[in-house]
Design brief:
This protein is mainly beta. It has no helices and 13 strands. It has a seven-stranded parallel beta sheet with strand order 1-3-5-7-9-11-13, with no helix packed on it. It has a three-stranded parallel beta sheet with strand order 2-4-6, with no helix packed on it. A three-stranded parallel beta sheet has the order 8-10-12, with no helix packed on it.
Amino acid sequence: MMQDLILLSVDNNDLSGPIPTNIDMLRSLQQLYLPGNKFFGSIPDSIGNLSVLEQISLSSNHLNSAIPASFFHLDKLISLDLSNNFFVGPLPSDVGGLKQLSFFDLSCNYLHGTIPESFGQIMMLNFLNLSHNSFDNISGTIPIFNSKAYKLSIFGSLLQ
């Protein structure tokens, strides 16, 4: 029953608590929309087991951990919105594993470190928002983007 679910949308419902660690039981899930709630804590690593996932929006919650590396192995992912949370730490170096990604919004978090060189491997990317974070290399060397990015925003990032 639930393992056949392809769309889960519970946006703007004031849901709170952690995202369940057994979310990977939704094996057929293609679209996950949880924005505008009060989810807190970390994103479970098990989300990386959702191999057919194409779209994720976890924006405008209270998620406050590092972004799990398992996210960057979802090779069917087209859209990823993690904006307006409290994510910390650097981006994993294998972010380039998201080969099909066209929309990527990490704005308004507490991410720092350098922008990984592997960003240049995301050929389908046409929207990237890294604004309002603390990346180190924005004023210096930004990785070469081989995609046809139509919108790139790094405005308001705290430059080191």
